[in-house]
Amino acid sequence: MSVFQRVLSLGPRSRGLHEVTSEVAAVVGESPVDSGMCNVFLQHTSASLCINENADPTARGDLEAFLDRLVPENEPYFRHTHEGPDDMPSHIKNVLTETSLAIPVVDGRMALGTWQGIYLWEHRDRATGRRLVVSVW
Amino acid sequence: MSVFQRVLSLGPRSRGLHEVTSEVAAVVGESPVDSGMCNVFLQHTSASLCINENADPTARGDLEAFLDRLVPENEPYFRHTHEGPDDMPSHIKNVLTETSLAIPVVDGRMALGTWQGIYLWEHRDRATGRRLVVSVW
Amino acid sequence: MSVFQRVLSLGPRSRGLHEVTSEVAAVVGESPVDSGMCNVFLQHTSASLCINENADPTARGDLEAFLDRLVPENEPYFRHTHEGPDDMPSHIKNVLTETSLAIPVVDGRMALGTWQGIYLWEHRDRATGRRLVVSVW
What we know:
3 copies of one chain form a homotrimer.
Chain A: E1 4-10, E2 16-19, H1 21-30, E3 36-42, E4 47-53, H2 57-70, H3 87-96, E5 100-106, E6 109-110, E7 116-122, E8 130-136
Antiparallel strand pairs in A: 1-8, 2-7, 3-5, 3-8, 4-7, 5-6
């Protein structure tokens, strides 16, 4: 077996959810795989990945608002704060969501449900670019 | 390599955790894979998957109670509410748990630990059926 | 295709995060895979896995402190408590984090980002050993 791999280098994004379904789909389309699996892996610990509803933008807004309340900045017990108030919350948000997503490939395309999109969730206020490794087999 | 895939169409379930280990095990048993991996992927964003203790039903009840408290309905800042009070909490619960599970296959069977079961976690009060894509390689 | 598998039996660890990157890397190095994927699966429901920042120990401490506050012991509604106050919180923490991690393999090594390490997160106060199944393909 061989696994088809590509690195996606994404430019800096603002804090919040950013859909990357089409970027990942392009790698799957480029691969020779007809029936198999796709994995998306994020090489960072202060952003994350998720699959979420991609029809209504208010779902994304509410999701961001919920996680910001669940993981507040400036908790008095945080010690890992040298990169600013969004530093430690970013790592916690990463651990509560995903670093790696696996999606089946059927008939040469990702078998996402009707309303499912793949999102990069940027947790930093001033992030640099992010690298994703997409593997298809 | 080829990946063995089956779609499991599950009928509507009540809100809460429902074990689906035997349904997934049946697909693994049907596959020709002796040593490999199994992936279970849920094509929906308002339910989720998890692996959890399957011996004591009180563990499931406590888990459901915890998540209902962590993600309450009717938060005043929620805007994605047109399908009812359980709409937005369902998407949040999905993101905090799993859409996709990977389990090793050893000697033709899933290598789950003694107390591990695979669960569909229905987050809606009145769900329709749910589709799982099971892949084995 | 064949998948290369090894079981890692880890001795008892104290409650908290314990890096296991080198143990997993040794299995990847032993495998014949040059370009592919690695999966780490934990056969338990009262500990978990995560990928986290491995440079600054304060990030680990803050992460442990956050999860202990998010999932407190002795909640009056918990019923699954026969193994002690850390019993039910352990299962909840497992569900909010990961049981299974997938990491791409590039040039014969795991393609982790610069600051990413693989951690076993022990949630019990007095755990026995833990078993990980590492699969490489």
